[in-house]
Amino acid sequence: MERVASVPSHLFDILRRYVVDGGDGRSILPWAATIDLAAEWEIPLRKAERILAAQAQELRLVHRRRYVKGSAEGKFVPSPEAGRLVAWLHEADIRLEGAVSLRDLAYVRPYQTSFEELSWSVDELRAAGVSLPDAARLMQAWDDLPTPSRYAFSGADPSFDAADYPVPATSAVLFTASQQLRENLSFLWETAGKESERLGLDPGLTASALPKKLADFSPSWHETAALVTYGFDEESDAEWCESPSWTPLTAQALARYAQQRHKGVRQAFKALVPLRRIGALIPELDAESVAALPGEVPDEHTMATVDPQLRVSPPGSPPAPLDLVSIAGRLGEPVSRTWQRIRPFLPLDGAPPTITGVPEAVPLWQDLSLLSERLDGQLPALGGTVSRERMAACARAVGKTPAWVRERLTVYTEMFGLELEPAETEDDGS
C-alpha cells in the first residue's frame, strides 16, 4: 500500500488503466501504457518510457524498455488518436507485444471512426515500432472499393456491418469469397492480385499463386462448411463476424460433407485433397487409411458415431470405451458395430485405434451408469478391481441385484480392464 500511495497523482490513472496480472504472481505494465502516456502528455516515447520505468521499478512491476537513446522510434511523439487506439486494443485484451492484425484493429474500431482515420493511427503505431500490417492504403481505399475487391479482402459479405472490414486476402478468405460470389477461384485470386498491384500493397497481404489445376474450381457452401471457420459468435453480444480461416477437416465434417454431397466417405475425402495445395487443413492419410474409409454415403447411425456431442469424452480427445457404450446404447446396436463405424475415421483426428476387447453385446441403459465411477454415465470410467461392495452399490443405484450387476460388468471386463472380485456367498445372487 505504501508503494501505491507513492505514485504521483498524474500517473495514477494510467497505471490503474494498464497494469495487468501476469498470471505468475507478478503484475505487468505493458507497452501500450508508454504510447498512451506519450500521446497524452505530447512527449517523445523514450521520455514517456523512462517515466514509467521508474514507477515500474518502484512498484515492482514487470516492464520492458524498448526505445534506445537517439532512435527515431524513441523520438516519435504519437497523436491523441494513436493513444486512444492503443487504449481500445488494451481494453480488448489485445497486446502490442504480440502482432496486431487488421482483424484486431477492425474489432476495436468505433463505427464513427472511418478506416481512413484509423489508418493514420496505424501508421503512427508502426512508426512507434509496433508490429502491424503495412495496410494503410487498403484501409484508406476500403469504402470505395468495388464489391468483388471488398469480398477478396474480407471473405464474408461486406454488406453486413459486422463483416465490413479489410483483412489480408489469404487463401481461406479468397476461397470463401469465391463461394459467396459463386465464382471460380481464379476470379478472386486475380481480383486480389490486381487490387494489390493498383494500391501498391505489401505482398504479404495477398495469397500465394493459385495452382493451375484449381483455377476453375468453384467452391460450394459444402466445401466452406467443411474446411473454413468464420461468421458470428453466437455466445457474444457483440455484432461481430470473424473473417474466414482454415479449420482442420474432422471426421464429423468429412462425414457431413459426404452425406450432403451424396458421396461415399472415401470419394469425398479424395475430392477435397487437392485443396490442401492452397492451405486447406486436410490430414495426410496413408494409402491404407484412405482405403479403409467407408465407400458408402454415411447414414444417420454413422453420423452419430462421429458426433462429439454424443460422446462423454472432451472434444478433441480420442474415443474412450465409455463413448462406445454411450453411442451404441443410443443407436441400439452392438458395441462392436459402433466400433466398426468409428475406426475408419480415427486417422482423421490423429487418434490410433487403441480400444480392444469390444463386445458384441447391445448395451442396456443401466450399463452406462455401472461403467462410470460416479454412477452418472460420465467420465471417469470404471477400471481395475471392482469390489463386491462396489457391485452392491451399483445394484442399489440401478434397482437390480449384485449378481445382475456382475453379469453386466462381465460383458465389458476386457474393454474396460476390469477385474471382478469373486462372489463371497450365494447371497450375492439374492
Beta-strand segment tally: 6
Determine the fraction of residues in helical runs and give it as a percent range: 40-55%
Topology as H/E string? Answer: HHEEHHHHHHHHHHHEEHHHHHHHEHHHE
Average pLDDT taken over every residue: 93
Secondary structure topology:
Layout: H1 2-5, H2 9-18, E1 20-21, E2 27-28, H3 31-41, H4 45-59, H5 72-75, H6 80-91, H7 102-108, H8 115-127, H9 136-141, H10 147-152, H11 171-181, H12 185-199, H13 221-227, E3 228-232, E4 241-246, H14 251-261, H15 265-272, H16 287-292, H17 300-305, H18 321-331, H19 335-342, H20 365-370, E5 384-386, H21 388-398, H22 402-411, H23 413-416, E6 418-420
Parallel strand pairs: 5-6
Antiparallel strand pairs: 1-2, 3-4
Architecture overview:
47% of the residues lie in helices and 5% in strands. By secondary structure, the protein is mostly helical. Among the domains are: 1-132, no CATH class; 248-349, no CATH class; 365-429, no CATH class. The strands form 3 sheets. Strands 1-2 form a two-stranded antiparallel ribbon. Strands 3-4 form a two-stranded antiparallel sheet. Strand 3 and strand 4 (241-246) form a beta hairpin. Helix 3 (31-41) packs across helix 4 (45-59) and helix 11 crosses helix 12. The longest helix has 15 residues, at 45-59. The relative contact order is 0.05.
